[in-house]
Design goal:
There is one protein chain. By secondary structure, the protein is an alpha/beta fold. The protein has a single domain, classed as P-loop containing nucleotide triphosphate hydrolases (Rossmann fold), CATH 3.40.50.300. 37% of the residues lie in helices and 27% in strands. The protein contains 10 helices and 10 strands. Strands 6-7-8-3-9-10 form a 6-stranded mixed sheet, sandwiched between helices. Strands 2-1-4-5 form a 4-stranded antiparallel sheet, with helices on one face. The longest helix is centred in the last third of the chain and has 14 residues. Bound molecules: adenosine-5'-triphosphate. The site of adenosine-5'-triphosphate has 11 residues, from helix 1.
Amino acid sequence: MSILTIRGLRGGYSEVDILNGIDLDLDDGEILTVAGTNGAGKSTLAKAIVGLLPRSSGTISFMGKDIMPLSAEARMGLGMGYVPQVANVFANLSILENLQVVAGSSRQRIDELFETFPLLAERRRMRAGSLSGGERQQLAFARALVPKPRLMLLDEPTAALSPNKVADSFALIRRLPSLGVSVLIVEQRARQSLAISNRGCILDSGLVALEGDAKTLLADEKAAELYLGNIGASH
Ligand SMILES: Nc1ncnc2c1ncn2[C@@H]1O[C@H](COP(=O)(O)OP(=O)(O)OP(=O)(O)O)[C@@H](O)[C@H]1O
């Protein structure tokens, strides 16, 4: 079953279109990587899906419902989670407090999340500001998971991590479908991200240049030459 269906999506921050007519599908329980060159519109696409792009047109349906008329808040209420590029945690609050302040959080839900993220459980009284980049990202993921989203959009989840933490981060993302969460990842580390994905798509100038099964894309010579390059391979 498709959880996200996008057709003819256009939009941008001003009168100039950054997205030029995007068609994209994500099936329930799958991980999809959105890769592409710098400035191709990957983060802009994530913002359009969650309802944070100032201007957009076309159709986006989420779990069969047309969400284009809905605000970002209403889309979150339907089961979309979003972790932006800069992990949004409150540095002055403890890990526990960071989870408690999310709307709809309960003691039981926090205990469930501490089971999923034992490292956060151990450090629950520590200030989020004193966490490492990888720990802070776990907390950002846990916060986004509090309301039990059906789809998580992750914008460059490994961008702020030290290279030795990148594999841990992808391992964590790979577990999300087993928690009932489908995933759309915007990633520069395209090869590593495709390696944990079911499907992939490559954006170029606000359009889908290539898309398909993740393994097929990884083996595609054109994709490798034009888009996956050495950047992805070297990490
Ligand atoms: N807040 C903004 N206001 C105006 N223009 C923006 C804004 N954010 C991004 N843009 C422009 O939109 C285009 C696409 O940017 P976007 O961040 O979506 O690209 P990207 O594919 O995610 O790139 P990268 O891999 O470098 O992060 C760029 O030309 C960028 O300058």
